[in-house]
Recover the amino acids of this structure.
């Protein structure tokens, strides 16, 4: 007999922990199923400066506090529990399956996050793990590279936007892109080129080029860049490398259960975070339109629970459109 909860949250990252705080504090029997251990992506950084109330805190320290808080309110967390499938039962409950166990709940919140796509070159993993110069988030880490020289990699919207953002901090930014043309929107490319062409600009381009290695002693000191047309390799001295080559949402296990976008993000309505399956909500970096930030992931989790309460009050609300006024109320 499968154990029954009010709310099962898939993923113990910031979105899942944010959701569990509100669900368990509201006395709903709440379970987090986490593939590895709680924390998600933020566990891999030792400096967060943009989470309210903390001047600077490491990912693991913040997660420890979050886990302490949610378990005090009764959240149960199962680690090493990868969810492999979900099903909506005839009685309206949601069945959640891992390799070993089956659970049911009145509602589920999908919060499996995303993973930064890697370059897969020597040095990338070593310097990422140690927090010594490889980053995937300009918004998060640009201030740590004030007056430094950095290389950025990519040609899409995030690459261009975050490269421009970095020019406000770094002494010099060199954008490496494998083609001549950018995939980013035209307005962003115009902005990029205007910046490159400013007199005395601190932004340079290396087009038709790819990064083949990141090197240094204890920290990033140089990047090896290869011109894909000539095959020639050169070294660029730098203090950091920002990789902006896309994100991969962790959504394979819900293919066919909820709707996914072309790039695999879960579709939901923007106001209430409802998927097409009654009782199943989405939160955090895995959803279409996510801001890919810690604070917005936590907020998504909270929102999903507020709307879960509305669903519990009135299951027929699921099929209603977005209303001008509908306050879930209560804290
Ligand atoms: C190095 C780094 C530094 C960052 N720095 C900052 C920063 O300074 N400020 C900021 O605002 N943001 C930062 N971010 C971004 C921030 O970490 C993310 O926006 C946030 O973690 C998203 O939270 P999430 O819960 O949606 O997803 P995740 O953090 O991705 O968590 C998802 C969780 O779900 C689990 N999971 C996945 N699939 C399954 C499954 N099938 N079954 C069970 N569990 C599953 C995963 O193991 C993971 O623990 C940083 C990210 C990285 C990688």
């Amino acid at each position: 007999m499968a154990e029954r909860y009010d709310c099962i949250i898939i993923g113990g990252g910031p979105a899942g922990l944010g959701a569990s705080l509100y669900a368990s504090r509201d006395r709903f029997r709440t379970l987090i199923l986490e593939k590895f251990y709680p924390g998600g992506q933020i566990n891999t950084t030792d400096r967060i400066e943009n989470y309210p109330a903390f001047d600077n805190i490491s990912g693991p320290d913040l997660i420890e506090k979050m886990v302490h808080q949610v378990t005090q309110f009764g959240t149960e967390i199962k680690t090493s529990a990868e969810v492999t499938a979900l099903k909506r039962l005839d009685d309206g409950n949601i069945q959640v399956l891992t390799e070993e166990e089956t659970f049911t709940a009145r509602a589920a919140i999908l919060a499996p996050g995303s993973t930064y796509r890697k370059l897969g070159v020597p040095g990338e993993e070593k310097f990422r793990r140690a927090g010594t110069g490889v980053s995937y988030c300009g918004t998060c880490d640009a201030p740590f590279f004030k007056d430094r020289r950095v290389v950025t990699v990519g040609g899409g919207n995030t690459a261009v936007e975050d490269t421009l953002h970095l020019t406000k901090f770094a002494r010099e930014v060199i954008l490496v892109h494998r083609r001549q043309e950018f995939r980013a929107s035209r307005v962003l490319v115009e902005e990029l080129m205007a910046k490159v062409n400013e007199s005395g600009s601190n932004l340079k381009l290396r087009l038709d080029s790819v990064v083949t290695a990141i090197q240094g002693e204890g920290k990033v000191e140089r990047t090896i860049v290869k011109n894909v047309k000539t095959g020639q390799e050169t070294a660029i001295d730098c203090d950091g490398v920002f990789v902006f080559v896309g994100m991969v949402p962790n959504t394979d296990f819900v293919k066919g259960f909820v709707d996914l976008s072309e790039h695999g993000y879960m579709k939901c309505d923007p106001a209430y975070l409802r998927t097409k399956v009654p009782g199943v909500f989405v939160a955090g970096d895995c959803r279409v339109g996510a801001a890919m930030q810690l604070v917005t992931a936590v907020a998504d989790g909270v929102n999903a629970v507020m709307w879960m309460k509305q669903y519990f009050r009135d299951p027929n609300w699921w099929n209603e459109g977005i209303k001008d006024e509908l306050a879930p109320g209560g804290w």
